[in-house]
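I am still learning, so would you mind making up any protein sequence you like and the tokens describing how it folds?
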Amino acid sequence: MYFTSLPDHSKPGFDEQRHFEQFKKHNIIFNALSQQSYCDNHVGCLSFKTVLSGEEWYGVNRNQLAVRPGQFLLLNNDQNYSCRIDTEQSSRCFSIFFKSEFASTVFQDAISSEEILLDDPFRLSEKPLEFFQTLNAITPKLQMQLDDLLLFLDRWGYNAYGIDEKLSSILLEFIGIHKIELKRSKQVEAIKTSTKTELYKRLCTAKDLLHSSYMDNPDLATIGKASCLSISQLVRQFKAAFGLTPHQYLIRIKLNKAAELLQNTSMGVNEITWSCGFENQSAFCRAFKESYGLQPNIFRATKK
């Protein structure tokens, strides 16, 4: 099923149960433009969330995450969450909801040998794959797959056979990204695997807070409280997992955003300084040159 508008949950007579029942029966894609949209509580199937423009906020496990262009969020089966769009300019949100049986079939194929699949081709995994529910960058390969999916939808509409083929490939790409996350979680300094996994989930909470609220300059105490980690543990384990301290990671987020604005907008350097959360223009220009080797205005001129 394919929707180009978001449901209005506040509309009189809206049948919420009937709406959500569809997610158990079909793969569903939303590609919608909206300024105002709210869903206070949804228990969903495995789903992929991104935006093509603007931003959308998700509430997951008491944390608030902002999904922006170039990022995506995977939510596991039966995960409670809220979502909202509340922006002056419209946001183009793009979501894929995977029917449980469909996702299980793809995952089973990915982890099983050909011999096992021959003996029992329709066996489904008893335990579904559980992803880290954290913000990730859209890889070039995933971007190509999403572009191909959008092109197919634009040209042919929702043709179930063609769409399912493309969704299978996208799910396989998620597995590859998940393997990278697992490898990163093993870098956490702990002995037990279960402890490494729990610590990594908390570090992902810290990382997502930095991405979502970088312009507010969250301090270590705020990040530590949100992720249930002491400040010293946060700094030490964050660097073990991501290769940078929280402050270094925050600066990188800000500079990446600044570079994007320099390339794609006509915003002045002073306005970019403010919007990216730098204290003053001198500090921004100094940090930008250290990272990119050029002053912001010169960088902008080279990208035209």
Remarks:
- Strands lie at 2-3, 28-44, 47-53, 56-60, 63-67, 71-75, 79-97, 135-137.
- The chain has a mean pLDDT of 88.
- Residues 224 and 234 are 6 Å apart (CA to CA).
- Residues 186-243 form one domain.
